[in-house]
Predict the 3D structure of the following.
Amino acid sequence: MPLNNVLDRLPRLLPGWSAALSGDPALYDDGAHGRIAVRASGTEPGTRLYIEAPAQTAERLAEALGGPKINLPA
């Protein structure tokens, strides 16, 4: 999914998370348990998400954004 599409969808998927969109990467933070960095891939078409968050959040984001199905240990 293109970067702009991901950035448009993330606020609805991450209510209550703060966003810093002016830098590269764009950063989302929930203030307690999660942090996500988002940037355009430098090697192929698409977007890279670096997720440091509970497994349930990572799984939900991957599914909602059309990424691969993941099943992480809690």
Observations:
- The chain has one domain: 3-64.
- Residues 3-64 form one domain.
- The CA atoms of residues 30 and 58 lie 13 Å apart.
- The helical segments are 3-13, 55-64.
